[in-house]
Structures are given as structure tokens and as C-alpha cells.
Amino acid sequence: MQQPSSPGAVTGPGAVGVTPSSVLDLNAYLMYATGKAARRRLTDTLTAHGLRLWHLTILAMLDDAGRLSKGDLASRLDMNQSDLTRSVTDLDRAGYVECARDPSDRRRIEVALTSAGRRALARLNSGVSATEADLLAPLTREERDLFAALLRRVHTHLERGRAGDGPAGVTAPPGAAGRAGRAAPRPVPAVP
To answer: Which pTM was predicted?
Structure first.
């Protein structure tokens, strides 16, 4: 039994190069394709400012959490330590963060957002908001709010699984359980 075509799916002989409805019924494909398009657009926006997605993420984390060690940043962002170091070095050279040794533990390097970093983050957030508005243009304001709430709910579920405290059947990758300093999930609004 064939499932009905998804809304907006184009089928038939003239539909060459258009995603078939059977593929559009796969949520995993839709998440992948939409994520890929979103990342491409976001990358273009950030590249115009000479930055990448990890740069934006680090700036946002420091704005939310304040001064953090490189180890805490890597852990909270689930980021490879060498990638984090490279990205922090880029931001330090741009004057967006400052790095300093922790006086109580000279082995720890702490990273803090500078005032130039805060201004850069405000500019980036403006550009990212415009990119997101374009990406989500087919949705109403209420649908965008619902979509964001649902994405946060799925993200929170996956974060819990990664941290080792997720639902039964979800296993965390080796070394994920017991990581200290993981950011607390943001509250997810109730979904009607």
C-alpha cells in the first residue's frame, strides 16, 4: 500500500531532481537535509564576519556562563580539545576573548569574553536571526515557536542520553557519563 504524497511533494515525469515523496516521509532525511541547508546558510553568514560556527558557539557559551577553562568549554560544548584550542586562538587573535592562567591552578587556561567579543556576538546574533528568519519563512510565528520548542525537547533528550542519564535504551558514548561542568539544559516551553 502506497502512502499518500507529502504536502508540497512533486511527483511524475517532470519531477527530475526533486525529492520523491517516499523520501520526504523519512523524518531522519528531513532533519539531515534541513540541517545541511541551515548549516550552509549559517556558514555563509558567519564567513562574512570571518568566523565559523564553533566561534559563534564559544562566544555564546561564554556570554551565558562567564569565564570558563578551556577544558570546561570543550566539555560543555562536547567539542574536541584541539578544535576548541584552535577556535579560541582565533577568537583571542580577533580580540573577542582573553585567555589567562588560573591563579589557583597554573595548568588551567581560562577564557573570558571581551567587550569587543560582546559587540561581535550582538552583530552575529543579528545576522543569524536574519538567516533563521529566511530559513523558516514558510512558518508562521506560532509554528516557529512550536518548531523551536520541539527541537529543544529533542536536543535535551539527546543531551541526557549523551550524559548517561537518558531514558532506558539510550547509551552514552564512552567517557560521557560523569563529565563535570555540563551546561544545564534550558527550560523547554510546554508544547500544546
So the answer is: 0.70
* 34-84 pLDDT, tens digit each: 999 999 999 999 999 999 999 999 999 999 999 999 999 999 998 999 999
* Cα dihedral 53, 98, 118, 155 in deg (nearest 10): 40
* Residue matched to cell numbers 585567555: 99
Residues 6+ apart with CB under 8 A from 121: 56, 59, 60, 63, 96, 113
- Please give the residue that has the higher pLDDT: either 3 or 43: 43
Rg (CA), the chain: 20
User: C-alpha angle with apex 173: 64 to 109, nearest 5 degrees?
Assistant: 40
Long-range contacts, 126-135 (Cβ 8 Å, 24+)? 127/45, 127/46, 127/48, 127/49, 128/42, 128/45, 128/46, 128/56, 130/45, 131/41, 131/42, 131/44, 131/45, 134/41, 135/37, 135/38, 135/41
Beta bridge partners of 112: 98
What residues does 69 pair with on adjacent strands? 110
Using an 8 Å Cβ cutoff, are 74 and 81 in contact? Answer: yes
